[in-house]
Amino acid sequence: MKTYTTGSLALLTAGLLLLTACGRASDGAAEKPKDVDTSAKATGTLAVWAMGSEGEALASFVKKFEAANPGIKVTVTPVGWDVAHDKITASIAGRSTPDVSMIGSTWMGELAKTGAVDPTPGNLIDKAAFFPSAWDTVMVDGTAYGVPWYVETRVLYYRKDIAAKAGLTPPATWDETKSFVKGLKKAGAAQGMNLNYTTGSWQEILPLIWQQGGSITGPDGKWTFDTPETVKALAWQRSYFEEGLASNKVDPASFPASFFKGDVAAYFSGPWMIAGMEKDGGPGFAGKFDVAPYPKGSAGGTSFVGGSDLVVFKDSRNRDAAWKFVQWLSDPETQASWYTTVRDLPSVQAAWQRPELTADKRVAVFGEQLKDARTPPPVPTWDQIAKVIDQEVEKVALGKSTPEEAAKSIQAQADAVGTGL
Amino acid sequence: MRNAGRLRAAGLYAALAIGLVFVAGPFVWTLLGSFKSDAEIRQEPPTFLPLRWITGNYAALFERMDVVTVTLNSAVVAVIVVASNLLFCSMVAYALTKLPFAAGRAVFGLVLLQMMVPAIVLLIPQFVTVASLGLADTYAGIVLPGLVTPLGVFLMRQFMADIPDELVHAARVDGSGEFRIFFRIVLPLCKPVLATLGLITFMGSWNAFVWPAVVAQRKEMYTLPVALASLSGRETVHYGLLLAGVIVVITPVLLLFVFLQRYFVQGVATAGLK
Fold it and tell me: How far is CA B128 from CA A94, A348, B135, B136, in A?
């Protein structure tokens, strides 16, 4: 359901960079953040943009902040994910940005490079409070821009009832995963496992690369896709299709209905699926599935970490109030209460100790997984690179290309695009 | 003879009925889907009639979104855009076809050229313009780029070119001014194509998404499709809710089409003939 990147992205970015190239320092040495005056009482109105369910729920959630900070008024505008990226880039070009905005964590590199985003004031925000993997999403070229707001990471979902019938426990390693899926198949799951090989499949391939100790960027920051680890990751995913443990013939839209039916008995996905499964699976389905950490490869079980960040724009007329608002949203107590509101997983580690988070055992699996999770480098061109990976993964999955060819092709295309830094 | 005629008519109706199933099918499915639960929409095999009719999707839609305000916004924008296109596109077309005008061909060429520029390329330049005019977050900002459309000029020009010049000449000889000729003689002859243009621009404006979403800065300025899009999450979609929203969005367009159908068919048919 990753529909927020549009085909027009490259064009827009190019246009935007051209437009903002003049008048703003956007290259050269790392930017120095300005401190926020914490002694003065911040006042003013704040325009805040947020997407999806966050955009809907935030408007009433901020009442608590307004009550604690008389003099600050927060206006939340919900923005559709489909248009959010275009809207934010256009607002930067037109210099009509809000004070604070939520952004997809992979957009950070691109937006920070426009020079419109305010570096995070170190005297207000403590980076040690966040998951290091989440903090990585706001670091661009040595400077932090904004804070991670909530995180999501991918784990293994499986049908508990089918696994029990087959006498299986969730797999701990790559090899165990195959025998696990074989067992599920024997117990009635005709399609075995659901593997994503279309849009967004990069989120399943990158963990496989990392789990062998691979990396998609070298020490010099250049792309390193043509590696044995990438080839192995692609080959490993393909082997599921070849051995009939996953299907590349069914319509991808038949998932998750196929999981409810039991044709598919396992898949990798993020925390939002818990609520989705419980809601759409029908009565009693909540007890039929469970989650487990990513099975480990030769170098560990690193997962993908995504989510959303919060940024303050330099054009904000109430900068102090804006940062205070961001600080409030990243307070452990606020984060835990935000979890109960929209089920967003806290990016702040301390929030995970609170009862709201420890009540559901399945949520704790995500908390564990977050300790071993990585993000793609936050570079301006990431969305383009992701699209390249998606296309090549699909070709391999459909047998139109070999893992070796695909790794070479990703490398060549990624080199042509560059990192944009 | 009569039997053969009946047979032909029956065959024709059968073919039309099959066509209708294909055209109307998705609409009917949308309408029925808006009364199903999300679980049922995702169910496999899919159901056609709801197993259990629920109105919860509409209740949720009206609760989560200010349907009245956003519909009103959509209507205001659509009325301005349609009225402006009807007036100005036909004025341009009149100048291009009925006035001695040396640069006419060049101007028309530029208009055609405009049709080939994808709207997305213009998004940022247009927004920068609108924002620096101080029109971000206003109706004026939302309607400005759509007030005169190249397609409208093209459509009107093709139609007006077929109106005999003698009519205009005769009126000039009788001493009519150009505005009088335009409003009293040429425009009334353009009714079918005006209906077509009205419907096309109405649909364009009513369905417009990216531009109003970028210009509107507060949810009070959102149009229907923009408000609807803000309801879907990044990873999860509530199909029932969206289908209910789609019904709310398409109903006015369908009604308009029913009322203008006669003109619409006539307009498209004649605009295509040259």
Answer: 4, 37, 10, 9
